[in-house]
Amino acid sequence: MKYKRFEELPVWQVGMALAERVFALTEHKAFNYKGDLRSQLQRAALSVGNNVAEGFERGTTQELLTFLYIARGSVGEVRSMLILCERLPYFAALKSQISDLKSQAESVSRQLRAWADSLQNSDIKGPRYLSARSRAGEEQHERASAFLEKLKQVQGKGAKVVQP
């Protein structure tokens, strides 16, 4: 599947889910008066999805890769702060939530790494490098794929369609 918007990207979606959970966790009173920990944890979590979005919007594979690694660094930052929270006594009541968030952050990190690995082995330079001719060819391919998919649906409903 080819993604046209960053909001469609599964890794962006899980990054945003991580940020939502971090924001919910940091509303707990244990984060009151702990210096900048709440803010830093929130900013690092938010940075994950934002960097995926920015890299995607840049239009080149190389820039996307750069931002995926920055996003991965932000996930590492989130995990590091969560580990600190586990070690501090005033977060004891949140131990289970913190552990779950660490697992979620590790999953996001693995997904970012897998996507980055697949992009590094790709010959695709990115949409910024597409010419008018290659864009037209891509659009034609997409229309043909959509037509074939519709044909399969029609065949699945019992209609007989003769394929060339």
Characterise this structure:
By secondary structure, the protein is mainly alpha-helical. It is 71% helix and 0% strand. It has helices at 10-25, 37-58, 61-87, 95-120, 132-156. The chain is elongated, with a radius of gyration of 21 Å. The relative contact order is 0.12.
Name the CATH homologous superfamily. 23S rRNA-intervening sequence
Rounded to the nearest angstrom, the distance between the terminal CA atoms is: 25 Å
Reported for the largest beta sheet, the result is: none
CATH architecture: Up-down Bundle
Overall shape: it is elongated
Give the domain tally.
1
Under CATH, the topology can be stated as de novo design (two linked rop proteins)
Strand content: under 5%
- Please compute the radius of gyration using only Cα atoms: 21 Å
Distinct helical segment count? 5
Number of strands: 0
CATH class: Mainly Alpha
Structural class by sheet pairing and helices: mainly alpha
Oligomerization state: single chain
- Low-confidence parts lasting 5 or more residues at pLDDT below 50? none
- What is the average per-residue confidence, as pLDDT, rounded to a whole number? 87
| Helix content class | over 70%
Query: What is the string of helix and strand elements?
Result: HHHHH
